[in-house]
Write a structure and sequence with these properties.
Distance between the termini: 27 Å
Low-confidence stretches: 155-165
Keywords: DNA recombination
CATH superfamily: Intergrase catalytic core
Protein name: Tyrosine-type recombinase/integrase
InterPro entries: DNA_brk_join_enz, Integrase-like_cat_sf, Integrase_catalytic
Radius of gyration: 16 Å
Largest sheet: 4 strands, mixed
Shape: globular
Pfam families: Phage_integrase
Length: 172
């Protein structure tokens, strides 16, 4: 799939890598901005839950050979926008600009279908990258880290967040 992404477009490979190294939802990945980077961290407020994360730019996913900082730097190449995922290509009436979640889904579907890989009746979606990230991070960093990165909470963690009134970012 990664090789198919490289042949599709710069942004498709970057989108897959951002999703994998950050473990975030497509809606959040599509909204990542360079201006969200401060003090060596990518600050994310998840759209679905409002959960706030501050992800270190030094985050590394060894299984994929990815550093968050490197992926972000690749997103800057040929990108005049503040959005990390930007396309200058006009297709089907689309204007150049940031990518939308449905665009990520469609591109991933196209990549999946062109990859030559065979899937059953329920092929993976872009969201499966988030699940894969969780599984890989659990092996490399442990269960607690793999739970914090995507913003999942258990009862003990929920109490911590409630104490902070959800106003503080969780350092990852």
């Amino acid at each position: 799939m990664r090789q198919a992404a490289l042949s599709h477009s710069e942004w498709a490979a970057n989108a897959c890598d951002l999703a994998l190294v950050t473990g975030q939802r497509r809606e959040d990945v599509s909204l990542f901005r360079f201006s969200d980077i401060r003090d060596g961290r990518l600050f994310v407020t998840q759209g679905k839950t409002g959960h706030k994360l501050a992800i270190s730019l030094n985050l590394r996913l060894d299984a994929a050979g990815l550093f968050l900082q490197d992926v972000i730097e690749r997103c800057r190449v040929n990108n005049p926008s503040n959005f990390m995922l930007y396309s200058s290509i006009r297709r089907g009436g689309r204007k150049p600009g940031p990518l939308f979640p449905d665009g990520l889904t469609q591109a991933f579907s196209d990549l999946r279908d062109s990859s030559g890989l065979r899937f059953g009746p329920n092929p993976p979606s872009f969201h499966e990258i988030r699940s894969l990230a969780g599984r890989l991070y659990e092996v490399e960093y442990g269960e607690e880290f793999a739970q914090r990165l995507p913003g999942h909470k258990n009862s003990a963690m929920t109490k911590k967040y409630l104490d902070a009134r959800s106003a503080e970012y969780v350092m990852v």
